[in-house]
Backbone:
């Protein structure tokens, strides 16, 4: 900080100018000008980080942030497919946001006022999955103390989202195929069927044609499901979307953690350089960790070692 750094004479009132000069003289006398300059630089850097972390994302659509060409193509496909009402298969790696796409298709469709129910086919045992999807009658099995309608009946005039359908057991695939063909469901323990009007959106991270070739997935069910296939790109193929997503979700994460947070350009550059094998879910968890450990403005050293050092090992 030198005399040249002082504001022009006409920029401040005389009394403020005199006070400013006294502060400069005192700082020079105590030889603390370099320390003041360093402190001012740090404060400016943190202020810049806070400004970048605030405000809604201008490039957000359907609850997703993305300006990259793959995401713009996906948004355009959602616009075209949502009103059609046909089954849709969403393909993408784990953590890319497949359920967000399913909800977008539902919300932008004529069924938007109807129910949206989701089930992860890989997270529930086969005998329970049938009951969850199609319902059961009282006494159908141990623990069935009352009739239960199931997702397909509850979501009548709405949408059922079947996540990780590539992990659905073959026996359940046959029962799902019948529902898609006939529009009828039969609860476990019942002898009667019920007509339902449900749009099915399925998602998987698996290569379903390869699973068909191995006998692990029914080809006729695949034909029923992939009337339209939407491909959700991995985060590593989305360029500067990493920075935009980080800035968009940081305020929410800070609120969840209960701390104020901002992020510096250096930390954003570090995030953008990482390959993100866990995609957006991994990015969210990385920011959650950084907010918990940082003193306010997230710096590269606040990130996990493998991200900050760029190593997958």
Residues:
């Amino acid at each position: 900080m030198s005399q040249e750094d002082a504001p022009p004479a006409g920029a401040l009132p005389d009394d403020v100018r005199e006070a400013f000069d006294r502060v400069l003289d005192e700082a020079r006398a105590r030889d603390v000008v370099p320390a003041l300059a360093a402190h001012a630089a740090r404060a400016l850097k943190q202020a810049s980080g806070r400004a970048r972390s605030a405000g809604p994302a201008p490039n957000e659509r359907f609850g997703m942030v993305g300006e990259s060409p793959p995401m713009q193509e996906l948004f355009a496909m959602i616009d075209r497919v949502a009103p059609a009402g046909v089954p849709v298969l969403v393909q993408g790696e784990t953590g890319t946001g497949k359920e967000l796409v399913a909800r977008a298709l539902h919300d932008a469709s004529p069924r938007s006022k109807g129910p949206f129910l989701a089930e992860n086919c890989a997270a529930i045992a086969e005998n329970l999955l049938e009951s969850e999807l199609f319902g059961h009658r009282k006494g159908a099995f141990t623990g069935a103390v009352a009739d239960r309608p199931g997702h397909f009946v509850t979501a009548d005039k709405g949408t059922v989202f079947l996540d990780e359908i590539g992990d659905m057991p073959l026996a359940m695939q046959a029962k799902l195929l019948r529902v898609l063909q006939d529009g009828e469901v039969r609860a476990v323990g019942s002898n009667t069927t019920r007509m339902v009007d449900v749009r099915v959106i399925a998602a998987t991270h698996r290569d379903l044609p390869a699973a068909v070739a191995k006998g692990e997935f029914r080809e006729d069910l695949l034909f029923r499901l992939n009337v339209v296939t939407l491909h959700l790109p991995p985060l590593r193929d989305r360029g500067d979307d990493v920075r935009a997503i980080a800035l968009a979700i940081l305020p929410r994460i800070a609120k969840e953690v209960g701390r104020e947070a901002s992020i510096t350009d250096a930390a954003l550059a570090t995030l953008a350089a990482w390959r993100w094998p866990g995609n957006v879910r991994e990015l969210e968890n990385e920011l959650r960790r950084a907010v918990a450990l940082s003193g306010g403005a997230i710096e590269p050293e606040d990130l996990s070692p493998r991200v900050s050092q760029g190593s997958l090992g």
